[in-house]
Specification:
about 425 residues, mainly alpha, Growth Hormone, Chain: A, transmembrane helix, transport, Sugar_transporter_CS, transmembrane, membrane
């Protein structure tokens, strides 16, 4: 009998498979990115609502950043498992439970009346996000096939940042215009996640053709195949400062707006986050044809400029400068993320790609969890202006160092 597995989209590439890949229409690449977008809408949907929970429950800026960091903790824990699991059993068996867990997080958010409930909801959200940044992004590449890897990296990366920006904007508008804001926002998000479940069920994906050796651990720090380490390091060097900058804006941006503008308007807070990630999406389309080293250098410059604008904003109480900082932060994350994903897509085989994506995100999210939390508690102790200044100086130094590393290795990457 003929080997029908040759028609599966997430089988490793082999001779004679090009016709099968060409048969997968381009619209399926966009559809495959939808579960990533839907989960990332949830990842930041709570951002404009924290002022409501702070008023009703009562907690400090330090506690707020800890709630945010629980999301990072869940995400990192998920990345220890989801990348390896996805490469061994397939993308769909990892994506579907993640989407269900995200829907459970919606229920907890909608009924939250304590810090503990917010912590659990953020933890569940982080686990779901960890699964989609490894298995979900790899699924987009699998659907695309080897001849559309650059497009796959672009769509997967844009799906992430567009969802991350749409979440707080949608939550801000809904919470200001409809009753029961914390319920309505997450009811709408649960519907979006349900459509992502349907998309995942119909996505043209199969099981990996060659499972990894059983002797290898199912739970481990994600890694890349031998020879791809330099590409991972270059991606992390720029992506990590970029995503740390956007994490700071998400966790403490509403507090900065309240201090600079004297407003707790949730639409304003959501709109600032949306503009930040809209910049992250747009810049990726603008730079997609450039050399990967140039894309990474643009990311380093963007994050450095964001921190300069942030420090200037808090010292001059300037809301326009704060928005400029958010735009540059989005550009820094977007280009760093696109550059890192493109480098990995170009060098890592499909059967290790989800784990490689997980490794990139571990490298990015560790500082994104630690530094904003430290900044939040520092701001409680010495004031928001001084805390933000220290954070900006530290992150600008890291971004500049990342740019220098890329400059030194630019001849080794295209």
């Amino acid at each position: 009998m003929p080997d029908t597995r040759s028609a599966r989209v997430d089988d490793p590439p082999r001779p004679g498979r090009e016709a099968t890949e060409a048969a997968v229409p381009t619209w399926w690449l966009w559809a495959a990115a939808w579960p990533v977008t839907a989960v990332f809408v949830l990842s930041n949907a709570a951002t404009p609502l924290y002022v409501l929970w702070q008023r009703d429950i009562g907690f400090s800026k330090g506690t707020l950043t800890v709630i945010f960091a629980c999301y990072i903790a869940g995400l990192l824990g998920s990345l220890l498992v989801s990348g390896v699991l996805s490469d061994r059993v397939g993308r769909r068996p990892v994506l579907l439970p993640a989407l269900v867990l995200a829907m459970a997080a919606c229920v907890i958010f909608a009924t939250a009346s304590s810090v503990a409930a917010l912590v659990v909801a953020r933890l569940f959200t982080g686990v779901a996000v960890g699964a989609v940044v490894s298995a979900g992004m790899a699924a987009v590449t699998d659907v695309a096939g080897p001849r559309r890897k650059r497009l796959a990296a672009l769509l997967a990366s844009c799906a992430m940042v567009f969802g991350a920006g749409l979440g707080p904007f949608l939550a801000g508008v809904l919470s200001e215009t409809l009753p029961a804001p914390t319920v309505t926002v997450f009811l709408v998000e649960a519907v979006l996640l349900a459509t992502a479940v349907l998309t995942t069920l119909r996505m043209p994906l199969g099981r990996p053709e060659t499972p990894a050796p059983a002797a290898r651990s199912w739970i481990r720090v994600p890694r890349v195949p031998r020879g791809s380490g330099i590409r991972l390091a270059l991606g992390v060097a720029v992506f990590a400062p970029g995503i740390t900058a956007t994490s700071f804006v998400l966790s403490l941006g509403p507090s900065l707006l309240a201090g600079l503008l004297g407003t707790t308007d949730r639409v304003v807070a959501g709109a600032m986050a949306f503009v930040m990630f809209l910049a992250a999406t747009g810049v990726q389309f603008a730079v997609q044809r450039l050399r990967r080293s140039v894309i990474l250098l643009i990311g380093a410059v963007g994050t450095t400029a964001a921190m300069a604008a942030l420090v200037a904003a808090v010292h001059t109480s300037s809301v326009p400068l704060l928005i400029v900082a958010a735009v540059f932060a989005g550009a820094g994350q977007g280009t760093g993320q696109l550059g890192g994903l493109s480098l990995l897509n170009a060098s890592v085989p499909p059967q290790r790609l989800a784990e490689a994506n997980a490794a990139l995100n571990v490298g990015g999210y560790v500082p994104a969890g630690v530094l904003p939390v430290a900044s939040g508690y520092l701001s409680d102790a010495i004031g928001l202006t001084t805390g933000a200044t220290v954070f900006g100086a530290v992150l600008a130094t890291l971004a500049i160092a990342g740019g220098v590393v890329v400059l030194g290795a630019r001849s080794r990457i295209r």
